[in-house]
Amino acid sequence: MQGRDSSDDRMMQSGTEAAIQALDPVMALMSLIQITGDRTLLHHYWDALDGRQETVVEAFRDINAHDLRKRVDPVIAAEIRDALRVAVKAGKPAVMPHIDMPMFRQMSRLLLGKDLPEMSMAVAFQHGGFTTDTRVRAAKDIPPADFKVIVVGAGMMGINAAVKLQQAGFDYTILEAMDKVGGNWLTNTYPGAAVDTPSRVYSFSFAPNASWTQFYPRGPEFLSYLERVTDKFALRERIRFGTWVEGAEWDEARKIWTVRAVRDGKSETHECNVLIMAVGPNNNPNYPNVKNIDVFKGPVIHSAAWDHSVDLEGKKVVLVGTGCSGVQVATAIADTVDELVVVQRQPEHIIPNPQAHASVDEIERIAMEQIPFVVNWKRLQSLESQMGDMHGMVIKDDDYAAKTGGFGPINDGMRMYAEGYLRSHFPDDPEMVESLTPNFPVFAKRPILDCGFYDTIKKPNVSIVRGELAEADDNAVILSDGTRIECDALLLATGYNLHFGRQFDIRGTDGRTLKDAFDPHPFSYEGMLITGFPNFVFMGAPYSYLVANHAVVSEQQVHYIVELLQWMVDDHLASFDVTPAATRAFVDDVDANLARSAWVQCGSAHGYYRDKGNDGKKKVILAIPRHNSRIWHDLRSPREEDFGVTRREGGQPAGDRKMDMLTI
Hints:
The protein is an alpha/beta fold. The chain is built from 21 helices and 25 strands.
């Protein structure tokens, strides 16, 4: 059998050598400690490294701090790197692949240059990928053979649920409407579509990706990641692709859900003990109400349903919307079209993002791929900014506001940061600065990480107008103020309809539909459960967003789901349902705190954060006004007193097994 060419080995070795040489000494020490298992190295090098830590360069940070840090003594740095070089070259299994919490506490302190808050310590340990087992409940039994789980959706949440259900021993099936995994990343294929969360942390902690090519990956690269996770955990045989779920009905007598679906044009039904909806809130394009839009002769394309058959080259294009999708589309097509007119209903806070289009340096990628544990410690560096106290960022600081007239110290700081960034792009154009300056707090709308939008609208073939799309004729669009703009194509970056399950015919206790239950507004308990719908979990339900990225939210929710299902197994439960009192207490507490937030105290800001109910009133239901580290702790275990349950016939809680004394 022919082995690998020696030249390949030499190339790999030279790449690894270069990666070790370029690696920050503190990062190198983290890897060295785990490979060798020599815990004393931490104390040996502490004084030489502390205060000289590398700072991650990314948005929402003082990026100057990276260059202002003290440098490690070159002799010490060389000593650490030489030891790491020897350890990596030896190719032996790591002596300490798993670190305990006391060691993590000290290693993270040296790496980050600060102590993580105690509430965030276990959170960072898990989301950094230093443990893949977060189970709290000590299982007393395995799921019985007739216990079935159905997951609807094979996007990021559904894949996460499948991995952890499989590891916990639950028999599950995923029903997916499309022919591939990926969810929204299959449908959002517009030019410039990219993740606006750093790639290091927009991935599962149990499957970190060392090979990102960009700090903010484009859609195809993220889809490729989800495909690899699906294959790594052998999920495909459990996914029924091309299966469109129409609805589901709870059978109170049998304590099961009957799910109705259509596959290849044929109706089919599935039964399960527990139904998990993992479809997310962003479901289908939101088309604005435009008079005579059908008269317009050119193509009308929504960003969430992009038509790649349309060639925009040389055309005059009107783009409506300047949210996250809108600025990405504008930046991507500006050099292709003949003329681009951007219609902005209201300005947005745009945050500098020096790495928006930056590629991950090959040396850094090699370090994460080939030097053990570097990918985890770099992931922790990117998580660190989310782990501290954020007082005055989203929740209004009343004392501060009374003294300054502002909102909160962090919120005002970010606002000034964004406004300074805007002025730096238009130093001689005060009218443009005024036009692009929001008059509401940061986070009243989703802040945008700049992908080059300000530079785009300064191009000679690009203009931006304030207004709202109202009407169309055969070759133009007309704004609400009467402004008429001739164009060849109309692009709509106008967001999504947030149905929160109301697009499905889901019927719970007494046949009540989810749509009826969500009148006038959707609600949930702990962002997942809805009273009156037993054995039903809606991942990413109301009150679960805006304080963490999708990967983090889904992992925390899936952990809770597995704990909940294991409780059913151990106590032989046939059904669970959250009590009305528990739901009311949760919703009342969340709503009271939301009232003090920038999401509610939003001034003139509009947008998808606010659900318009049948009563005509708008209500913030997307966000949860809690630090994500608190949410992590809240979701460790179900509070059994918040549930009404029924037991399987003849079932009793599993007791402790008797231990008889053995003799010889």
